[in-house]
Write a structure and sequence with these properties.
Elements lengths: L13 H12 L6 E4 L1 H6 L4 E2 L9 E7 L10 H4 L4 E6 L3 E6 L5 H15 L1
Parallel strand pairs: 1-2, 1-3
Antiparallel strand pairs: 3-5, 4-5
Length: about 120
């Protein structure tokens, strides 16, 4: 994700630019970076929540505080214990995801995700 660009037509303000600068300077270790569709359109290289294939490994989740409704049910609950806030400003919070290798912890995370979808 080191090649983060900003769509020049997006007309981003200082908060969006700060997010793009963070993503450029701190690439995700592995996996896709999920974000709301408007953010993914403005900052190419991000995967919109709606386009995420659950078989893809997630390395980071970007949350726009005004677009919370785009976060799929159960997504964040499924990362319980694996997510660490790595960036925040007035508009965004980014969480880095470090997947567990413990099958028992992973089973609990899957159960939490499923419960949140009900």
């Amino acid at each position: 994700m080191g090649n983060i660009l900003i769509n020049p037509e997006a007309g981003l303000d200082e908060y969006w630019t700060a997010l793009a600068d963070f993503l450029r300077a701190s690439p995700s270790a592995a996996g896709v970076t999920l974000a709301p569709s408007a953010v993914a359109q403005a900052i190419p290289g991000l995967t919109p929540f709606a386009a995420w294939d659950e078989d893809q490994t997630v390395g980071r989740v970007v949350i726009h505080k005004g677009l919370i409704e785009e976060i799929p049910d159960g997504l964040l609950e499924g990362f319980y214990g694996d997510a660490r806030a790595s960036f925040a400003n007035e508009v965004f919070v980014a969480f880095d995801i470090t997947p567990t290798r413990d099958e028992h912890v992973r089973a609990a995370q899957i159960a939490l995700r499923e419960k949140a979808r009900c």
